[in-house]
Amino acid sequence: MKGGGFRIYALAYLIFLYAPIILLPLFAFNEGTVIAFPLTGFSTKWFVAAANQPTLWLAVKNSLIIAASASVISTALGVFAARASTRYHFPGKGGVMGLIMLPLVLPEIIVAVSLLVVLLGLGINLSIVTVILGHVLICTPFTIAILTSAFQSLDRSLEEAAYDLGETGISTFRLIILPLVMPGIISSLLISFTISLDEFIIAFFLAGTQPTLPIYIFSQFRFPQAVPVIMALGTVLVACSIVLLASAEYFRRRGLARSGAKDTGGFL
Amino acid sequence: MARELCKKFKARRNGGAMEQETRWSRLRRSEAAHGYLLVGPPALYAILLLAAPLGTILVYSFLTDGYLEIIREFTLANYREAWTNELYRSVMLRSLGVAMAVTTVTVLLAFPVAYFVSFHVAPERKSLWLFLITIPFWTSYLIRVFLWKVILGFNGVINSGLLGLGIIDEPLTFILYNVNAVVITLAHAYAPFAILPIFVALEKIDRSLLEAGQDLGESKLMTFWRVTLPLAMPGVIASVLIVFIPTIGDYVTPQLVGGPEGRMVANLIQLQYLKLDNYPLGSAIAVSAMSIVTVVSLIFLFLNRRFLRGPK
Amino acid sequence: MTAAAKPTMIEFRDVHKYYGDYHALRGITATIRAGEFFSLLGPSGCGKTTLLRTIAGFEEISSGAVMIDGKHMEGVPANKRPTNMVFQSYAIFPHLTVAENVGFGLRRAKLSKDELNCRVGEALEMVGLRGLGARAAHALSGGQRQRVALARALILKPKVLLLDEPLSALDKKMREQMQVELIKLQRQVGITFILVTHDQEEALVMSDRIAVMFEGEIAQLADPETLYRRPNSRKVADFIGTMNFLPARILSEGEQGIEVEAQGLGRMLLDPSQAPGAASGTGSSVGFRPETATMLFEGQKAEREAMGTVEEVVYYGDMTYYDVRLDGTEAPIRISMRNVFGRPVLEIGARTRVAWSPGAIVLFR
User: Fold this and answer.
1) Do A214 and B144 touch (CB under 8 A)?
2) Are C250 and C207 in a shared domain?
3) What pLDDT digit, counting tens, does each position of B40-57 carry?
């Protein structure tokens, strides 16, 4: 076995990473109201209780609308930016790309309050639309990161070949570039969807009276009796996230395999 | 600008080259035009919804807070308040301290894992390891933080477990609602963020360099110290930044597990904006926090440049 | 039809290309004939690929004119030019099958399915890939990718086929095989092939004519034999094969020829055709190829002989290369000798007689 000590350490580290998440289903299916060991018995009643809350369903609906819109818009913006930065040279490129990528290194609370101030100043009512605006801002850097690597692995001569064979710029994009970066686009949609679905701070500041899923969950933390329901809800969310991420990873790898590039691993 | 001018001069001196020069710049302009056209939509979005709001905050931070409105009167009072008021100062210092502690712990713990995945895991299984490491990061942040509250609480998993095993007689109280809890929770939340940049830097190291190190008579440990570590340094710096920046501005963790003595700057900003409606002071605190982040980041980037000076 | 009678296919008129301050093409003027196998040969960075791309329409020229088949190409985009290109990386579309790749350019022709299949099949057959149409593009070997790229470009029946270092990614065996196939293919389709290469041997083997380029200029444009036997500068001579140079002095120039005195060789009378180049201003010298001189063994006699000492011997199996310093010279010359059965291999330090012929000499002024 290679790297014995390191392997044990890495496995211990993984356990540390996963420990809280493993607790989720344990307590979600536990009959007792108090979150403590020992477990008292198997039950699905918390899932039923979660499903019976009308506010939750409104929050889910809002969150899905926000996540779907934010992922589509930010991926579209990401396609533009990634294409521009990988294919063209223009003065001021570094500055422009830096500004677009800035939310990646900006505490989210700053993004949230600055948007809040401007939106209120302009007299715009807070709603799920304003949340979408904010989420697009923080999702776009991630979509650009994913899409840039997709665009970068494109051999420029593929475009030239299509052009040489009589296609126009637009039909080349449709016939060659788009199919080749499609896995990247799908992976970018999934990742930005996940980020938006999970985002709390910006939604907290910009949603007004509309609940989103994280806002709903946060509001429930105040009530001790709601904790098992949150556990059940969390279990469902984690399961969804894992499915989304696994598909994103699947598409990313298929994209790599298709263009024959080497796998360098990871989304980031 | 200066380069542009030089080009023109050269073209003039070349005489005959003048015409080519203008045609070349026309072509260049068309390539640049393509670039601007494409980058336009995302850039416009970022200018309208990021640059303009940040600018607004900066302006607000110099204005005076009236009771129900903001008075357009330039003042430095907000900054004076933010930097001298004992409460605000202590919260900012605490944020800085917590972020530094979290960064140190996370990066130190993450390095061996990144090293293991890069050097000891078979290439075809690296993706799987990275995937496993990243998954917890993508699962609901709120729920993860809340789980730590459950784990560390008075009746939490640790206390009930330890009580049940008879190791302690009464629940430990120093693990929740204080700075310790904030550090533990944040260190857990940002662990994957620390691993990835280090991993990327380690992956880039040409393995023959290590063999060369040993071939030149260094022990494995000294090779690590003199070859691997310096080459991995850019990755370490990157993970320091990528952990430090979001942790200093984190809101959820101090709110949920920090208790009154674990509050950080984000909670303060939220308080000023949403509860006290003091936008100018909130803005001044936000700008101060950003300045701290920028200064610390620049220090680390400067260090990074020193490490990068050699190979490029 | 003789080569000279063939009509012009491509004409460069004082073509210049700048990248910012960098002068990539410096006044290229040349014509390429219809049906010719033409090569652009030169070291990397000499502008040969840039020149090829100005024909394809991927590079706009800064001044001058490029004509294809008598038509001015300014403002004509790549997708409207009667040229097709085989890219250095082959640029096979990885998400399409072999047949879809080959038939890619026919999309706009709106052919019936049968006709399309028929033409793709024909093209595949021509490059020796019959039956591989359904294969995924990324499952091909290097040689097969190259063939797909050829079929894809030729299916559109272009007037000119442009090949950008098409063989550089192949191993030596495969490369030699493809060289022969490309020559055959060109004869079969009869269109103009323009090949960019940095490999002088490849250019000599394949081309009807070659343009040797250095630093954005054509140094010499000629058929392979002229290029090899009568290079017009030391630079061209050095780039194509090996040449020995000896300092020389021009004694007289008259009706009957040029009288030259070369170090180590003595006086000789050269025909004006043996001095094809213009004066370089760096002093004259004479040059000859290693295989045009021979070492004489006992009993052998030659019209012109010079004495020398063996300084280095390199044994190649079928050949032996000797570095011989002729008496009265500073640097050794190289002589290649076929290893005929029974002939001894000389040792370092041996004295030897070298036979040479004035007809093989090139004079560089």
Assistant:
1) no
2) no
3) 888 888 888 888 888 888
Mean pLDDT of chain C: 85
Question: Where do the DSSP E strands lie in A35-189?
Answer: none
Nearest Cβ partner for C79 among A167, A176, A258: A167
Residue C281 and residue C143 in one domain: no
| Contact yes or no for A118 and B120 at CB 8 A | no
H or E, element range at C352 = strand C351-355
CA distance C20 to chain B (A): 7
CB < 8 Å to C23, chain B: 17
DSSP string for A218-232:
HHHTT-GGGHHHHHH
Query: What pLDDT digit, counting tens, does each position of B1-43 carry?
Result: 343 433 433 333 333 343 444 444 455 456 777 778 888 888 8
Chains that contact A by 3+ CB pairs under 8 Å? B, C
CA distance C130 to C119: 12
Residue C138's domain comprises 3-229
Tokens standing for residue B269: 């900003």
Q: Are residues C184 and C319 in the same domain?
A: no
Sheet holding C83-86, edge to edge: C83-86, C160-164, C192-197, C37-41, C209-214, C217-222
Here the tokens at position B40 are 């336009």
Sign, CA torsion A63/A65/A66/A72 = positive
Q: What is the DSSP string of A5-28?
A: HHHHHHHHHHHHHHHHHHHHHHHH
List, in sequence order, every residue forming a beta bridge with C210; answer none if it has no partner: C39, C222
Name the CA dihedral angle for B170, B176, B180, B185, rounded to a multiple of 10 degrees: 130
Q: Which of A64, A44, A55, A33 is nearest to A219 (CA)?
A: A55
Single-letter code of the amino acid located at C241: G
Burial of B58 (0-12, 13-18, 19+ CB in 10 A): middle
Residues forming a β-bridge with C41: C197, C212
Residues in a beta bridge with B65: B70
Q: Which domain holds residue A99?
A: 61-124+132-200+236-259
Q: Find the closest chain C residue to B16 by CA distance.
A: C63
SS3 A211: coil
State the residue for tokens 């593929």. Answer: A158
The three-class DSSP label of residue A241 is helix
The residue ranges of chain A whose pLDDT is under 70 are 1-3, 35-39, 255-268
